[in-house]
Amino acid sequence: MSQPDNHSSRSASVSRRTSETDISIDLNLDGTGTHSISSGVVFLDHMLANFSKHAQIDITLTCKGDTDVDDHHSVEDIALVLGSALLQALGDKKGIKRYGWSMIPMDEALARCALDLGGRSYSVFNATFNRSVVNGFSTEMVEHFFLSLSRTLHANIHISILEGQNTHHKIEAIFKAFAYALKDAISISGTGIPSTKGVI
Predict the structure, then answer these.
(1) Half-sphere exposure of residue 99, counting CA atoms within 13 Å on the CB side?
(2) For the chain, percent of residues with pLDDT exceeding 70
(3) How far is Cα 156 from Cα 99, in angstroms, rounded to an integer?
(4) Whole-model pTM?
(5) Which domains does the chain carry?
(6) Among 81, 49, 92, which Cα is nearest to 153's?
(7) For residues 120 and 186, what is the distance between their CA atoms, to the nearest angstrom?
(8) How far apart are the C-alpha atoms of 166 and 173, rounded to whole Å?
(9) How far is residue 70 from each of residues 6, 12, 38, measured CA to CA in Å?
(10) Interior CA angle at 194 toward 153 and 84, to 5°?
C-alpha cells in the first residue's frame, strides 16, 4: 500500500482477510460521492452509500463475511478497514481543518457528530434504538461500528441522537452527520500541520 503524496492524491486501497471476512476498499477523499458497495449487510450498504454521497468520498467496497453466523464480524471489520483507508488517504494531514462537526435532522430525528482527526482514538456514543435489527444490521452494531472506526482512523468521534423515535431515521441521521463532520475535517484550509505539536 503506497502512501499518498500530501493532499495532491488523497486516495487509498486497503484489504483485510481473516477466517471471518474478506474485505477490499478503494477510496478517494476528493471525489464526488461515487460509490459501489457490497457489504453483505443490506442496511449497512444503504448507510455507507449515504456516507459516500454526503461526504463526497468515492468508495468501492466489497466484503464477503460470515453473515450466516451474525453481522458482527462484517460490520466490525468493515469499520476497521474504512478507518485504515481514510487514515492512509490523509497522509501527513498537512493543511486539513482537522476538526469537524455537524447536526443533521431526518424528520423527527436529530443527530450530532463532532470529530477530531488529531491522532488519538476515542469514541463517545449516545443513542438508543427501538428495534434490534434493521434489514440484517443489528442496531447494537451502530455504536461498535464507530468505536472500531475511531481506532483505525485514530480519531475522536462523538455522536449523539438529540431527538427521534424512528430507528431507521436515527441511524441514517447518524451516518449523515458523520459524513458532513468528516467532510469538514478533511477539507484543506491551509498548508501546515494543524497542531502545536507539529505532527498529528
Answers:
(1) 3
(2) 96
(3) 10
(4) 0.94
(5) 11-186 (3.30.230.40)
(6) 81
(7) 16
(8) 11
(9) 39, 28, 16
(10) 15
